[in-house]
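Exercise 3.2. Students should predict the tertiary structure of the chain below and write it as structure tokens, then compare their answer with the key that follows.

Predict this chain's 3D structure.
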Amino acid sequence: MKLTLIGAGPGDPDLITLKGVKALQKAKVVLYDSLAHPALLEHCPTDCEKILVGKRFGKTSCAQDEINNLIVHRAQQYGEVVRLKGGDSFIFGRGYEEIIFAAQHGITYEVIPGISSSYSVPALAGIPLTTRGLSESFWVVTGTTRDHALSKDVHFAAQSTATVVILMGMHKLHEIVDIYANIGKIDEHIAIIQNGSMPNQKIVSGKISNILPLVQVSGISSPTIIVIGPVATLPDLPLEE
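Answer key:
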């Protein structure tokens, strides 16, 4: 029995890896997330069983325990199961938890990495997470921990000179703004990207001091990637002639 864990990329169906496509083309059953583009399922054989196990913040979803049990049950039924997850399965995707659960039930696994939204979505929006003279490193932090709190690492990241990327943090934006404001970084640049890599992508950029009213006016909402640091203003800079 085998579990194949595929990272679907940031949203655009063309951004899945070729190896991921080849695995889908041979799949007997696929458990897929809400953030995996539906067009990716077209690569599957016509008789492939496709099961939505998507999860979105604040919405009814398939619990992780249910997903784990489905993986084991379908692997036992078909001999193999494909798990299709948005972005990269090992970056806030709980992919490692799933392969450990599978291994405990005698199921081998293969990991096919995906393009993570943490760096690809900013790149597609014209934001380099590192660039000479502005940023030498970057932090990627979750906005939602196991107990639904903002990660404490945001406090440490905010005090650094690194670019800070926050995933799943839109509902914690007020807290994030307060953290930066409390250490005197009200002029720090921030960009929020909704539906990154997709045709309906939307970007709101500003500073810590004014991002909350800008977000309210724009109506931007999850799923988003939040980028904080000097590089977040680069899409607003005019190109040199």
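Discussion points: The CA atoms of residues 179 and 198 lie 30 Å apart. Strands lie at 2-7, 29-32, 49-52, 80-85, 108-112, 138-142, 163-167, 189-194, 202-207, 224-228.
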